[in-house]
Amino acid sequence: MLLRLCHERGLKCLSTPFGEEGLELAEKYMPEAIILDIKLPGIDGWAVLETLKGNPKTRHIPVHMMSVDEPSMEAFIKGAVGYLKKPISKTDLDAAFHKLVGVFSKEVKNLLVVEDDNNLRKSIIKLIGNGDVCPEEAANGAETIRALKAKTFDCMILDLGLPDMTGFELLKMLESMEDITMPPVIVYTRRDLTREEDAKLREYAETIIIKGVKSEERLLDEASLFLHRVVSNLPESKRKMITNLHDTDVMFKDKTVLVVDDDMRNVFALSKVLEEKGMRILKAENGQKALDVLKGTPDVDLVLMDIMMPVMDGYETIKRIRDQETFRKLPVIALTAKAMKEDKARCISAGASDYLPKPVDVNRLSSMMRVWLYR
């Protein structure tokens, strides 16, 4: 049915049931848009999406996901423009095609920068603005609401400290307004969020596409992702900022990773993959030993945490890590053989930064590590 609908619209179409081949076709032919199923043989749709969005050559291509599973905000946060739940009607597919065509045919994207500091607001616009982006400014919450009512934006950059209301109060108001189209939101703070602020962002992430960044490089990277900008068309200095972020040889080299797992086969397999990326590996066979390692080596950059372990399980270990101020922002990726939605929720509630089901997909792990090492 997908092929027929493509042809009815005069579109050329490539198709494959395999994620690996899909990635090859995407890089070879650079399609205008991609419709991606999640349940694929070999690498799944999540891994394909993360690989597409992690590749500067393909990250601008709009991707519409589909699956028998319930719609997930994770798809939108990772850069998808839409999500269809199977079985899919012709009306649903028509809407998906309309959205995809709208994205790839829109030559100039609308960006809203919400920041009360005039100098910083101008510097953000200078960083992101170019011929294919039309930026608008808002210095407070009231101006933001007026702007969103007047126009549809493709992305919004938000400062949390506004003069008339907090960024969180603004998000709460926008969430309840039916007369606006809420764009993806990038919270730009240039500092670490407090535990309370981080918890609030996680709450809004259930209903709003939202990401937090604190560096110029990440801000440019995430804004370019949501604006579907072709990286090769950016000025050289900005192009280098993005490509350097996605150069795994550079970003992983000499980073220290603590692998916590009671199954030495898993530890060996993960260690081998990470060492090939130039990373330094520390190991612990249970939660208590992981805490001991962190106490003696506080400069760990990232933790891969198995959940089901003797002595102290992953949930308790993550909670104890988060109780220490030194490690409050340490990226911790939970690994578990259980793949139910409630398992992920429990991991995040315990304090995990992110979650991956076992067996671990190396491509997804690399994409996830890249995100958390360079927020």
Question: Quick summary of this structure?
Answer:
This protein has 375 residues and is of the alpha/beta class. It has three domains: 2-104, Rossmann fold (3-Layer(aba) Sandwich); 109-245, Rossmann fold; 248-373, 3-Layer(aba) Sandwich (Rossmann fold), CATH 3.40.50. It is 45% helix and 16% strand.
Keywords:
13 strands, 3 domains, globular, five-stranded parallel sheet, alpha/beta, Rossmann fold, 375 residues
- Element order, helices and strands? HHEHEHEHEHEHEHEHEHHHEHEHEHEHEH
What's the β-strand tally? 13
Amino- and carboxy-terminal Cα gap: 40 Å
Indicate the proportion of strand residues: 15-25%
| Global geometry | globular
Main pleated sheet: 5 strands, parallel
What is the count of structural domains?
3
The CATH topology of the largest domain corresponds to Rossmann fold
Structural description of this entry:
- The protein is of the alpha/beta class.
- It has helices at residues 2-8, 19-29, 45-54, 73-77, 90-104, 118-128, 141-150, 167-176, 195-204, 216-226, 236-245, 248-251, 264-276, 287-296, 314-322, 341-350, 362-373; strands spanning 34-37, 63-67, 82-85, 109-114, 133-138, 155-158, 185-188, 210-213, 256-260, 280-284, 302-306, 332-336, 354-357.
- The protein has 3 domains: 2-104, Response regulator (Rossmann fold); 109-245, Response regulator (Rossmann fold, 3-Layer(aba) Sandwich), CATH 3.40.50; 248-373, 3-Layer(aba) Sandwich (Rossmann fold), CATH 3.40.50.
- It has 17 helices and 13 strands.
- The strands form 3 sheets. Strands 5-4-6-7-8 form a 5-stranded parallel beta sheet.
- Strand 1 (34-37), helix 3 (45-54) and strand 2 (63-67) form a beta-alpha-beta unit.
- Helix 2 runs parallel beside helix 3 (45-54), helix 3 (45-54) packs across helix 17 and helix 14 (287-296) packs parallel to helix 15.
- The radius of gyration is 21 Å and the shape is globular.
